[in-house]
Amino acid sequence: MSLIVKKVAQLITVFIFLYGIYIIVHGHLTPGGGFAGGAILAGAYILQILAFGRDPLHLKKKETGASISESISILTVLILAVVGLFIGTKVFFNNYLPSGKIGELVSAGTIPLYNILIGIEVAAALLTIFLALIIYKEEIE
Amino acid sequence: MELTISILLGFMIIGAIFAIHAKDLLSSVIAAGIVGYSLVICFLLLKAPDLAIVQIVVETITLIIMVAVVIDSTREELKVKIDTQQIINISLALIFMLVLVFFFARAIESLNPLGQHTLRMASAYVGDPAAKTGSANLVTGILFDFRGYDTLGEATILFTAAIGVLTILRIKGKK
Amino acid sequence: MMVYILSFILFLVGLYGIITRRNLIKIVISLSIMEFSIFILLVLIGYIDGGIAPIITDQVINPTYVDPLPQAMVLTAIVIGLATTAMLMAIAIRLYRKYGTFDIREIKNLKG
């Protein structure tokens, strides 16, 4: 791509990334949540890859980072849910943290934690799929 | 409200028919984008902002993937000759459609008219939810608290799809 | 009633595309059109006249919310639809690299 596209992509990626993080963190107060925010985060990465191509980013069989963070986040979701089995009313996916005052940032018990983890998981999964499509494009030949 | 959504659905049907019958695969992919982005406007009109945000991002990523696949292949549509196989396929499609229309005509009698829905199952989730989850966004509260199993299954499916794409693309095929 | 019938017609258009087309990409597109018709039907069923979006605010007194349950279900279905579409696209790429065509009938004839 040309210099203008690269520069604009550099500038705008920061704001897209911040917007995705805002959507994830405020998922229990405003529209959005883990799914939407994760997809926006993946979109920021995809914009960067589309603007700069695969060569400057040294993308050669390096989808492992995205894959590992995906596995770790889904494992943490399971651990958080299993902890609910041992605390309080002994239910899987139990909301065991105090729910707090409605409308504040730190409230709603475990829901913000699940939001953040699902956001990381969705972003990593979409990024893995896209990187697989980019990296193995030439190697298949 | 019903008229606006009917017009949008009409646009979506026209876009779908064009996507199926277009000569060039690239214009077919872009016509499928018409359907997806009209769906975003429908979601906004139907008071579902969460769905609108998700759908607009997902549709964009889908379009990028599809264009990346289509753009360096033979883009022209195959010539469809009307042979016996094609006639069998079209008549099969018509029979399936007639069966589905029959069952839909039976099912539509039990649906309420648009806008006169009564909360049955969700009334337990909506009534006094502050005491239960403390989440101001009711959809997030349902997704991560009352229906946590659904979200876990969805995350598992996404994980499996990512692993599947890696597996499919990584194996060296036999030439 | 009109909107239900129109969304069902959208479903039929997708079904027609799946059965009669021979191009793999067009089959994937028809599949996603069927998905879209189901999403809009589910959200239409949950709509309530004069309802507000299901988010608790202090400004509205004694509000009526639209049904949040179909919205939550459709939210997961959209992301699953993206996953299946990406998977089908990966399969289409592999078939195209091996056989050089998207025509499913030709691929069936070129076994091995």
What does this structure look like?
The complex is a heterotrimer of chains A (141), B (175) and C (112). Chain A has 141 residues and is mainly alpha-helical. Chain A has 4 helices and no strands. In chain A, helix 1 (3-25) packs antiparallel against helix 2 (34-52) and helix 2 (34-52) runs parallel beside helix 4 (111-139). The longest helix of chain A has 29 residues, at 111-139. Chain B is extended and about 60 Å long. Chain B starts with a helix and ends in a 5-residue tail after the last helix. Helices cover 70% and strands 0% of the residues of chain B. The mean pLDDT of chain B is 81. With 112 residues, chain C is mainly α. Chain C contains 4 helices and no strands. Chain C has helices at 2-20, 24-45, 68-99, 104-109. The model of chain C has no long low-confidence stretch (mean pLDDT 83). The chains are: A mainly alpha (141), B mainly alpha (175), C mainly alpha (112). At the A-C interface, helix 4 of A face helix 3 of C.
Task: Summarize the helices and strands and which ones pair or pack.
The complex is a heterotrimer of chains A (141), B (175) and C (112).
Chain A: H1 3-25, H2 34-52, H3 64-86, H4 111-139
Helix pairs in contact in A: 1-2, 2-4, 3-4
Chain B: H1 2-21, H2 25-45, H3 49-70, H4 84-107, H5 123-126, H6 138-146, H7 148-170
Helix pairs in contact in B: 1-2, 2-3, 6-7
Chain C: H1 2-20, H2 24-45, H3 68-99, H4 104-109
